[in-house]
Amino acid sequence: MVERPDLASVRFRWLLAIAVVLSLAGGGVAGAEVRPFGDARVVAQVPTPPGFPEGIATSNGLIWVSGPATFGTAGGPPSKVLVYHAGTGLVVRSWDIQGENLSQEHANSSITLDRLLRAYVLNTQLGVVRISLNGKQEQYSSPFPDLKPCGAVTPGTPCSPTPFDAPPLPNDLVFRADGTLYVTDSTQATIWRVPPGGGVPQIWFQDARLASPSFGPNGIRIDPAGAKVYFTVTQDLQNRSLVYTLPLVASPSAANLLVFHEYTNGDLPDGIAFGKTGLLYVAIATPFASGISILSPAGVEVARLSNQGNPIFPYGSPPTSPSTAMARSW
User: Is the Cα torsion angle 292, 116, 50, 87 positive or negative in sign?
Assistant: First the structure.
């Protein structure tokens, strides 16, 4: 995989704490006390294993977490899903992912829930797996294909519009109201579509502008109106960091790809979520400058949440800690 070690550290070391803030920013936990806007505190520490948590989903006062989202896992224990009580920070359930080849690289990235509180987890080896509350694991999608660069294959062959060959890195996922699942692929400049009910991933959108030496398509969400897909590109080949939009249509074209917001000054956008008022919350995963960028419907930054007094805590653990903190913000 072609990557820059500094961005790899950003991507897999610090994001979960920021993602927890994003997930709760639009609503919070029922019964939570009122606190000043942007105030944050640690909910829980995620132990090792799995360590390096990333995926986050909340419902009914519980927090689902998936990990480890890191490289160097060959020979290590299975990837995991943990469920925390949002009020106490205690683990109430945990499951090992079944079916991974533990002698090879294996990891979980993002996670989402359906109305039956079944968890859909992105696994780098397996694709999307679905886990019920009783711990039953099902294969929801097949693994994401390893696409060769378009310049290296016969025209008409499914390929990646990148100048280099890299394995797939399924990163974030979001469901459309009709059950279609969209998944970002950070290394293959691709957004995949999984049909309602699961199955084989299909290419939904590709563009050379999404290619990256590290992490291209990253966080993804559908706007509250259900009309557009919003997604981040953490850093492209021109060192640009952007939030893009695409219309939620069957086959968007290259002309449909529009810049919603461009970050400068080293900001690295990662996970995203919409708040109840329609504001877009963007995790900024820059080393020692992490935080939350809040964008208006016009794509203008209207507020910025950042760590106060410490560049890591409480959005991530101190460097000496083997685990990663989950922070909650109001």
Answer: positive
Q: What are φ and ψ of residue 85, in 5° steps?
A: -80, 120
Rounded CA separation 22/326 (Å): 11
Regarding pTM above 0.90, the answer is no
Distance between CA atoms of 157 and 122, rounded to whole angstroms?
25
Determine the Cα–Cα distance for residues 42 and 317; give it in Å rounded to an integer: 9
Q: Is omega for the bond preceding 247 within 30 degrees of 0, making it cis? A: no
Closest to 291 measured CA to CA, from 270, 261, 275, 277: 270
Q: Which of 149, 42, 43 is nearest to 87 (CA)?
A: 43
Note whether 89 and 44 are within 8 A (CB): yes
Domains of the chain: 5-329 (2.120.10.30)
pLDDT digits (tens, 9 = 90+) for 81-115: 999 999 999 999 999 999 999 999 999 999 999 99
Reference 128, options 166, 184, 75, 76; nearest CA is 184
DSSP reduced 3-state for 316:
coil
